[in-house]
Design goal:
The structure is a single chain. This protein has a domain of 82 residues. Helices cover 73% and strands 0% of the residues. With 194 residues, the protein is mostly helical.
Amino acid sequence: MRISGLIVALLVLTGCQSLSRNNDSTGEPEKVTPVVKVDRGFCLFDEPPPTFENNCDATYWVNKWIEAANQPWLDRKQTLSGLGKSYFDTLHAYILTLPNDTPYQDRLRAQLALDDIAGDFTPSAQELIKVVASTQNNQVMQLESAMVVLEQENTSRGEKLKALEKEVHNLRKKLEELLQIEATLMDKNRSTQQ
């Protein structure tokens, strides 16, 4: 009897599971993002802003990224301090902050500045920057942010643990004092009985 009940229950659960799968597949079709292709005539802007150099020279920007990757953070930071707010400088600053040794705040500042001008890029430039750099950069920032939160939590727990250890030490001391008082009272009680 129990076995047949178990089999019926399994059949009911299997049927419900297959129905929920069918409901998922009958919904709206998945949104598919069109893939943008990068060709030899790749440009960042259709019409570059004034004083924006190397608009259609992808190798220039890749070489800037390679240079940044091979420089220590302090050298890149010094270069960053000399850059302005132009589109060219914003993109250059972003590239300088892509290596992993860049501090979180500098990385975030450059990402936000790039996000402000990204709408002016060509669709293929927007997609290229998103796929090649921005997605990974955002993941690194999320991980760094999570690590900071975990570090703060660990520090807080460590402080609480130290406080609890101190409290345990004080309670042990009080317990020893109480045991000593009890032993003294028992000795007095024995001496008065004799």
